[in-house]
Structures are given as structure tokens and as C-alpha cells.
Amino acid sequence: MKARLTVLGSGTSMGVPTIGCDCNVCHSSDPHDRRTRPSVLVEFNAKNILIDSTPDFREQAIREGINQIDAVLYTHSHADHILGLDDLRPLSFHRPQKIPLYAQPEAAKFLRNTFSYIFDAEYKYGGLAQVELHSIDGPVQLFGARFEPVKVIHGDTAIIGFRFGSAAYLTDFSEIPEESFSQLKDLDVLFLDALRHKPHPTHSTVDNSLRIVQRLKPQRAFFTHICHDLPHAATNETLPRNVRLSYDGLKLDFEI
């Protein structure tokens, strides 16, 4: 089955440009250096699956002309991945059913607490996002496609990415456990966290992610969750031909 992935955001938690920063990347005229918070949209069978709802979701949805979300998958509960949940409101009002949200148990609990006014309030006047939260501990079947959680380590916390068809999306990790590599064989498209060159306690570096690409040998690899240390054009010149920095608005076709 044919599918399309759109990179809604390719930036780190503070985005690029970063507030108050005078570096060359934050003041770059290259539109590829403008990076909103990290998220992707997966389209197939006339359905739209969102992975993470960032604080920039409203801007991303307007930019890409998104008028429909059929489900949201969450990798984890950090602010840069969840705070756009409220912006699902206008996309939820005219659906026959609530938008299903899927997260691991601890992340689902955090979402419920953070957005208690949506899930637990007795507000009687409308205006709340019409969403329904589901806790997951295994693959999620959505509209004929299988979204398989892939465990990764984000600092000292286990979170998830997702494998779907011939693609995988792994954002926010410092390490991939050995047992997860078996889920990442024979990929066409692989997205990996690659924050910068300098080591970081909770994120992968360019060199580390390149080693992962060498091991897994996907047809195409894209780095995401990129901070302002990496200028788009100059960094791409240093990467192998099948590896590129992703960018906001990038679209890829693949089999799901």
C-alpha cells in the first residue's frame, strides 16, 4: 500500500531560530534552516496519522493544508511533543467520532493529567478537543496499517519510536537497545535523532546516527530533532549520499 510521509517539524525542543540566539543558522536565509518542533504526518488510504502534536502544530497544519487527522501516536510526553494537543480542536469538531490518541501507559497518564480540562472536566459549553485517549503496550492497527512501537532510550528513560511498513521514525534517543535493531531491518526510510556533533546526555549525535545507518543499511536515512549547530546545506555536503538532514515540509513516498 502506498503512503506518504511529510515532515511537519525537524527541529529540537527550542526550535530554530532559537529565541534570543544570534548564531548564523538562527539568522540563515535558507528556509531549510527554519525548524519547528519534531513531528511527522503519515498519509495512506485517505487517512492522516499524526506522530506527536508539537507546540507548533497549528503553524505546521496551516503550512501543509491539513484539514483532517484520523489518529495521533505519541512517542513520549515531553512538552515539545504534546503541547499542540489542544490545536486538534478544529479538526475534531466535525467528525462522527472522537480522534483516537495512542500512548504508552506512563505517557498516557501524563497526557491525561496535563490536559485534565479535556479528559476529566465537566465543561458544558463546548470548545474542547474531541479526543479519546488509548494506552498501548504493543502494535497499533490503524486503517489497514500496522504501527509497531520501537523501544529507544532517551537519557535515562525508555520511550518509543514507530516502525510502519518500510519506514521507521525514531526521534529523541541517545541509544537504541540491542533488542530493537531486529525491528528495523529492510527499511526503505529511516528517521533518526541527530541533534548535533557535540555529545548530549539525551540525544544522538550525527556520528552516532551515522553508525546506526551503517549497521541497518536503509535505502534512505534522514536526521531530525536538529538544533542550530547544524547548517542544512553545509552539513549535507559532509553526509553519505543516502543520508540527509530532514527539513520542514519534506515529503517522501514509501510502502506501508
Indicate the CATH topology: Metallo-beta-lactamase, Chain A
Overall helicity: 10-25%
**So how many helices?**
7
Outline? globular
Distance between the first and last residues' Cα: 5 Å
Number of domains: 1
CATH architecture: 4-Layer Sandwich
Low-confidence stretches: none
What is the alpha-carbon Rg in Å? 18 Å
- Give the overall average pLDDT: 97
Give a quick set of tags describing it.
7 helices, single chain, 14 strands, Metallo-beta-lactamase, Chain A
What does this structure look like?
The protein has 256 residues and is α/β, with parallel strands linked by helices. The chain has a single domain (2-245), classed as Ribonuclease Z/Hydroxyacylglutathione hydrolase-like (Metallo-beta-lactamase, Chain A). 18% of the residues lie in helices and 29% in strands. It has 7 helices and 14 strands. It has helices at residues 57-64, 79-82, 89-92, 105-114, 116-119, 206-216, 232-236, and strands at 2-9, 39-44, 47-51, 71-73, 99-103, 131-135, 140-142, 145-154, 157-164, 167-170, 189-193, 220-224, 243-245, 251-255. It has a 7-stranded mixed β-sheet with strand order 6-5-4-3-2-1-14. A 7-stranded mixed β-sheet has the order 7-8-9-10-11-12-13. The longest helix is centred in the C-terminal third of the chain and has 11 residues, at 206-216. 44% of the residues are buried. The model has no long low-confidence stretch (mean pLDDT 97).
